[in-house]
Backbone:
């Protein structure tokens, strides 16, 4: 049997598919994009106007100097408007200079407006929306996804890769459109001045195009590899923070530092390789564009000398156009460099947005409030991957309000059996029914709202204690929160804290003891008033005195609910309606404590090894063994 893979590496989009997605994304921000591009067109027009006015001014000065005494040189028209008749040459020149200055001031203002609107569009809209979309997807993705992908990979996708996607709009799309429009206008303008000079000056352009294509192809694998290295570094960082206590306890700080430094150095070395390539490409482009200037000076100068081209509106304007043309061509290096980076980053963002949500509500699933709590496993099997089932032939039935205790060696499948009930994973064979209905037909949110969970170690959020208890029911009143805390034997220690229920917990609740965290977790589960309670060895990480207190709390929590509990206390096993013993993913025995002890099978064997109150067990066992 093969299951859909949730590994991100498995779902690679082609470059063209990524570009298509990026264009569709851009379309949804079309108003902002059009505004940005329109600003650029106005900037271009103003730049060209300034340039042609400079040419006009130079020609006017040249003609005035060449004119004989008493000869009047007609003042040029500015944008078709004649200057006042009778202006002295100096006034005309100052008039032209004044308009050039006004245009420059207008350009400076528009450039400012351009940067503000690009920043607003990209950083404040696009990046925020995208991060939100990726985060939203991550919240809905199934456990299988998180099993298959490292934290480092997920974090870099939400942070760095979203920025790389932004780079596509900013440094690729906008730049390319601006470049295409500007280069076309420059070419038309240059051709209108002198087609031959234009052809001569732009002879190196095809070489530039070839160089860019080669550069783009050569850098793509390097950028892809770079992402993997950064991912590895972030993963090491995340792990070292999560495992800081273990690192310190074993005195492994130096080794961890060395591993991180090696990962950091690998990123640096690889970045350096990319940097060298860019460093070669940019000057090469720069050199080719300088060659154009040499052609202009020699051939263009000859045309002016021959009287075939005016000096100002011809050669000087041409030089300005060529300068700007070269500037745009130099940008090719940035665009080409950004294309690969942004495509790789964008692909990684889309892979998360597209990742398959394996476990979700059926489209027609009806909403409901309360479950009764009858649970039935019918020939259930489950495998994490296609090959090795970790649960086989599970047949189990609990009526509402019953309690089953699960016993089994480590790795026997106790946790995974429970994780199927809230659909953390879907069964891979057989059926799981609640209140007589296959759980895949139930609305997922409603199903989970009816299930309370306490794990071996409970995760709390860096928020107030009250908010943590009300996590599954944010609109709960303070009375409801306190009631749940009382049931969980947490009220006393909470009220002893200076801020009481409003105490803000540290990251992962690390300002509380393990026992206190578990009690808050029990309160969090109880507050939901769930029909089904799943208790996965909730005292595993707790000393025996606290364990006793927690079990007293659990006694109150369990009352009236269908309960699955993994426990290692005889008192708990005795309290259960029946016990199941698991081995290698199968239920190998079931019955009450007394029945199972009498059977002298797997239960007795496992119980002797695992139960914390084993002395009591021997007495109980003997009673059961010899009725
Ligand atoms: N995310 C996972 N991917 C692949 N295999 C897994 C995963 N989680 C658990 N397993 C495997 O599934 C089997 C059952 O694991 P499970 O956690 O249910 O055991 P358990 O009986 O609860 O053990 P313990 O008492 O130690 O908690 C084990 O062989 C384990 O190695």
Residues:
């Amino acid at each position: 049997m093969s299951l859909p893979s949730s590994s991100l590496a498995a779902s690679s989009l082609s470059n063209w598919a990524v570009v298509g997605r990026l264009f569709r994304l851009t379309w949804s921000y079309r108003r902002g994009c059009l505004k940005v591009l329109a600003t650029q067109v106005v900037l271009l027009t103003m730049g060209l106007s300034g340039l042609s006015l400079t040419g006009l001014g130079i020609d006017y000065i040249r003609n005035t100097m060449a004119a004989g005494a008493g000869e009047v040189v007609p003042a040029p028209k500015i944008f078709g408007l004649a200057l006042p008749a009778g202006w002295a040459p100096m006034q005309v020149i100052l008039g032209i200079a004044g308009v050039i200055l006004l245009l420059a001031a207008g350009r400076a203002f528009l450039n400012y407006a351009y940067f503000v609107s690009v920043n607003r569009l990209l950083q404040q809209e696009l990046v925020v929306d995208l991060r939100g979309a990726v985060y939203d997807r991550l919240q809905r993705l199934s456990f299988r996804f998180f099993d298959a992908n490292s934290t480092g990979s997920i974090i870099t996708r939400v942070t760095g890769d979203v920025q790389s996607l932004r780079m596509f709009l900013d440094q690729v799309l906008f730049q390319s459109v601006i470049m295409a429009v500007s280069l076309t206008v420059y070419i038309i303008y240059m051709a209108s001045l002198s087609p031959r000079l234009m052809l001569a000056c732009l002879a190196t352009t095809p070489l530039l195009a070839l160089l860019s294509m080669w550069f783009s192809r050569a850098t793509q694998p390097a950028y892809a590899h770079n992402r993997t290295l950064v991912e590895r570094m972030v993963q090491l960082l995340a792990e070292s923070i999560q495992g800081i206590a273990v690192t310190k306890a074993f005195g492994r700080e130096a080794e961890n530092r060395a591993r991180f430094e090696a990962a950091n150095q690998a990123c640096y070395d690889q970045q350096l390789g990319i940097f060298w390539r860019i460093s070669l490409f940019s000057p090469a482009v720069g050199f080719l564009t300088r060659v154009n200037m040499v052609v202009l000076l020699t051939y263009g100068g000859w045309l002016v000398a021959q009287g075939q081209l005016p000096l100002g509106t011809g050669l000087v304007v041409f030089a300005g156009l060529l300068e700007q043309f070269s500037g745009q061509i130099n940008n090719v290096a940035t665009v080409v460099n950004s294309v690969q980076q942004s495509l790789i980053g964008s692909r990684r963002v889309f892979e998360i947005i597209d990742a398959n949500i394996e476990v979700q509500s059926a489209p027609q699933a009806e909403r409901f409030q309360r479950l009764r709590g009858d649970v039935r496993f019918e020939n259930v099997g489950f495998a994490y991957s296609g090959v090795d089932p970790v649960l086989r032939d599970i047949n189990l039935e609990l009526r509402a309000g019953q309690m089953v205790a699960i016993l089994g060696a480590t790795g026997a499948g106790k946790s995974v059996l429970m994780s199927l009930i809230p659909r953390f994973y879907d069964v891979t064979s057989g059926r799981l029914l609640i209140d007589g209905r296959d759980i895949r037909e139930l609305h997922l949110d409603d199903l989970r709202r009816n299930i309370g969970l306490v794990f071996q170690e409970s995760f709390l959020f860096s928020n107030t204690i009250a908010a943590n208890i009300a996590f599954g029911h944010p609109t709960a009143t303070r009375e409801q929160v306190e009631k749940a805390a009382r049931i969980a034997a947490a009220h006393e220690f909470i009220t002893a804290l200076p801020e009481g229920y409003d105490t803000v917990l540290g990251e992962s609740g690390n300002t509380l003891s393990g026992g206190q965290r578990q009690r808050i977790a029990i309160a969090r589960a109880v507050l939901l008033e769930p029909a089904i309670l799943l208790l996965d060895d909730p005292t595993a990480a707790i000393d025996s005195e606290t364990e006793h207190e927690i079990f007293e709390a659990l006694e109150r929590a369990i009352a009236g609910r269908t309960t699955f509990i993994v426990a290692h206390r005889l008192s708990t096993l005795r309290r259960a309606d029946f016990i199941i013993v698991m081995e290698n993913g199968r239920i190998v025995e079931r019955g009450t404590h007394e029945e199972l002890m009498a059977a002298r099978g797997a239960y007795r064997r496992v119980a002797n090894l695992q139960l914390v109150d084993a002395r009591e067990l021997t007495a109980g066992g003997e009673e059961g063994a010899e009725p």
Q: What stands out?
A: The domain at 459-529 is CATH 3.40.50.300 (Rossmann fold). The first helix runs from residue 15 to 27. Residues 1-5, 620-627 have pLDDT under 50 and may be disordered.
